[in-house]
Design a protein that fits this description.
single chain, 430 residues, mainly alpha, two-stranded antiparallel sheet, 19 helices, 2 strands, dolichyl-P-Man:Man5GlcNAc2-PP-dolichol alpha-1,3-mannosyltransferase
Length: 430
């Protein structure tokens, strides 16, 4: 046993070590400067992300418990998959209260699982909690993308989480299939960022099999395949994407191939004017006119062609720098992908309220890719939120939404060339 004097000196030394560590911790973290960094420094975004994820868990539970559920499509989903459960594989015979089944096979399989988990679709409360989980997983995937890319400041996460009643409603009060497709999409984007191209293609294709809007990302993704995988690799990835669609759709293709292809991949479907968010200021006869649809498609293709060259340059740079493991390099991959989707949304024949999740989580990234001031960016974000929360839509809300989309696309076009800031940040990150 050590003498009392030595024990006292040892204890004193330990106390001094602890005090030095506490002082060091206080000097490093318990400062005004560090508090500001937690709010403004993209490299510390993960701290806010963790706190907000925990907060969102409680918020969503509160929403589920306190705000009444609104039935729109859930019962129809269950009726559609119930037909498959009962042995009907002919797509033309699968229907619900809202009409025929119009989603690909992945939707059927996934919602069949939900059908059984929720007591044949009757346990709505359990379904809401499952969609709460989908919401939190989606947020975690989005936060990971933002953390790695270091593009937006942490305070913008508050706008993603706390400012959109519409998005919370779409997930846990309406139970649409759009959020499920978006979750698999963001999973695929995370995999692509890490270089897992084959697995990313599987998740991307599965997202498409739930809802076709995921194809809006395809033009930029094709350029990413070509730039990073070459022609042979691109053919391989496209084969994986197409092969999964064939495998998932096989039972329906064998039963009635034409009905499945027309029903699940119907690009000419006419939407109801009463639900449109973006074209309320048009007369209904123009809204449903095929000429209007063709014009939108042509404008969509033209704008994609205008952006194709800078996008491909971005993707080639991404392919070259991705092996370095520097997270900020992912900006070169994300901007074309998110912009392609925005262009598709801007020229959609109609946007319904649940379609907001198609691009909601990408808006901060897109706005921070423009040369606008912070206040203008926040104003654009606020106006977009206002438009999507205006029910029913008005001439003004639809027009303002188009103006906001136009401003974002123009801002991205003005900054379509790689900036010196990105090159400097890459050097700092190494």
């Amino acid at each position: 046993m050590a003498p009392p004097g030595k024990r006292h000196r040892a204890q004193s030394t330990k106390i001094q070590v602890i005090n030095r560590r506490l002082a060091k911790f206080q000097a490093k973290y318990l400062t005004t400067d560090f508090a500001k960094r937690l709010v403004f420094d993209p490299s510390l975004l993960w701290v806010s992300a963790i706190l907000l994820l925990v907060g969102e868990l409680f918020v969503n539970v509160l929403v589920i418990q306190r705000i009444p559920y609104t039935e729109i499509d859930w019962i129809a989903y269950m009726q559609e998959v119930e037909g498959v459960v009962n042995g009907t594989w002919d797509y033309s015979k699968l229907k619900g209260d809202t009409g025929p089944l119009v989603y690909p096979a992945g939707f059927v399989y996934l919602f069949t699982i939900l059908y059984y988990l929720t007591n044949y679709g009757k346990n709505i409360r359990l379904a809401q909690y499952i969609f709460c989980g989908i919401y939190l997983i989606t947020l975690a995937l989005v936060f990971r993308i933002y953390s790695k890319s270091r593009k937006i400041p942490p305070y913008m996460l508050i706008f993603i989480c706390c400012t959109s009643y519409r998005v919370h409603s779409i997930y846990v009060l309406r139970l649409f299939n759009d959020p499920v497709a978006i979750m698999f999409l963001f999973c695929s984007i995370n995999l692509f960022m890490e270089g897992y191209w084959t697995l990313g293609s599987v998740f991307y294709s599965f997202a498409v099999s739930i809802k076709m809007n995921i194809l809006l990302f395809a033009p930029a993704l094709l350029l990413a395949y070509i730039a990073s995988q070459g022609i042979y690799g691109t053919l391989k990835q496209l084969t994986i994407c197409a092969g999964l669609q064939i495998v998932l759709g096989a039972p329906f293709l064998l039963a009635n191939p034409l009905a499945y292809l027309i029903g699940s991949f119907n690009l000419g479907r006419v939407f109801l004017f009463e639900w449109t968010v973006n074209w309320r200021f048009l007369p209904e006869e123009i809204f449903i006119h095929p000429g209007f649809h063709i014009t939108l498609l042509l404008l969509h293709v033209v704008l994609l062609a205008i952006f194709a060259k800078p996008w491909f340059r971005y993707m080639k740079s991404f392919a070259k720098l991705q092996p370095t493991g520097v997270g900020i390099v992912s900006q070169l991959f994300l901007l074309p992908l998110f912009t392609a989707n925005l262009i598709g949304v801007a020229f959609s024949r109609s946007l319904h309220y649940q379609f907001y999740v198609w691009y909601f989580h990408t808006l901060p990234y897109l706005l921070w890719s423009t040369p606008y001031s912070i206040w203008l960016r926040l104003c654009i974000l606020g106006f977009i939120e206002m438009c999507w929360n205006t029910f029913p839509s008005t001439y003004a809300s639809s027009a303002i939404l188009h103006v906001c989309h136009f401003l974002i696309i123009c801002g991205i076009f003005w900054r379509r060339h790689p900036t010196k800031d990105l090159k400097i940040d890459i050097k700092k990150d190494k």
